Amino acid sequence: MEQNGRILVGGSEDEVDYPPNDYIYLCRDVGFVVFGVVTLLLDWGLDMATAYNHWHHEDLAWFILTVVFMSVSSLVMMGVSLYWYIKDTANEAVLGEAAPRVSRCKWVVRLTLLLCQLGPLQRYYDTLRYGWKSRKYWKRGDTQKQRQYYTWMLYEDGDSVFLRMFECFMESAPQLVLQLYILTQISEAEDPSKYGKIWRYTISFGSVTSLVSLAWGVMAFARGTRFTALEKDNISLLGSFVIFLWHLFCLGARVSALVVFASVFRLMVVWVCLGHWLLMVVCLLGRRSFRASGASLLCEVVYCLLFGAIYVFVFLNDKDEPTRWKYTAYYTVWEMENLALVVLFLLYGDPAVLYYIPGSKANATEMSTEATRTIVCAPIFTLTDSRNFLFPAVIFHAMTFGLGLAMMGIYYSLLHPSRCPPPSLPLPRHHQGGTTPPPPHPDTNPLNALQTEL
After folding, report:
1. What are the phi and psi torsion angles at 373 (to 5°)?
2. Considering 183, 207, 230, which residue would you say is the last residue of a domain?
3. 2 membership: H or E segment, kind and range
4. Which residues are CB-neighbours of 94 under 8 A, at least 6 positions away?
5. Which portions of the sequence form the region Disordered (predicted)?
6. Is residue 168 in a domain?
7. With the C-alpha atoms ordered 232, 237, 238, 241, is the resulting torsion angle positive or negative?
8. 254 lies in a domain?
9. pTM of the full predicted structure?
């Protein structure tokens, strides 16, 4: 469905007759933005610390891969963000006074932050600034100004969450698989002076942060696009949390399957991801999923390529239509791939390799006899038989996938806005008259138009 020049793709069918939050910018909205900034900075900081670790220990191949994942995604997002800023400048001439004014000084700040690869922070700042101004005018009773700044906040927030989500899947997702793969290749018995606790904790904590960033990026994107679609009801706080858990568990299942497969077959995991990406791109092209954008065929292909990369890890609805059968088809193919990866790992994995818990004191104690081999895996597991130590990875995958499906079921059956809409906030007395909302922000940017909702 197309609205105000943007593509809203999603599967919900609920309709409401009031705008989101009655154009009131809430403190919890600030919390979502602040948490997004925190995860972004943590992700960047830990990635840089991980890259330094690899360089310091002369692991040049891992250092180069880590830096490539960081720099490529950052440069792409910098270019896209700059392109959108230029398009917004063109919109100023169309809207006149209805458009936010950008001074030369602010342009200098924008370009400086973009060159320093800190562009997302500028967009987060603008989101907060417009939101707080909207709240200020709401308290003063100036409904026209309140709605005007709220509208600007909506589209700035839409830009920021869109960029953040694609940055996550271009950088955090491959980074997560890479760093976990590296952990599986190093045992504590291998040069403890080189691969000590600090090295392990840095990579482990960075991997956790990347996983959280991925799940948060999808949730924030779903929540943000609900805000932008003024005819759609918002997602509640509890619903947002369940969406976060849903994708956190499903991403954990997907990443665990890819990592255990890569630990045995190494670069073959790249071909697995490319095959899934190609299959998704063909499906999207065959469905003409983004034809409603009115963009050229080339832009449609670009949309499909971008979403195909996301579909390697998660599913986002591509059209405003019921999602049940699409989710069923996607997760069936997705989990069949995961099971195949795990089974191949079980069949061809080296029984002498032990997947340990980083930082534990009893990671690899092997006692062999003619009949059995007992392996002690951290202080938690005492397993008998040469292949039983592989079960924790299989159990983890099964549990996280099951929990992910359970969270998805809870969201759609109990917490979807069509079933559990958040309450409409009462306006103060001096707001009762109401005014006509400001004209919508005409977004001529086709990439910025590509949005999805849950």
Report:
1. -130, 125
2. 230
3. strand 2-3
4. 442
5. 424-454
6. yes
7. positive
8. yes
9. 0.77
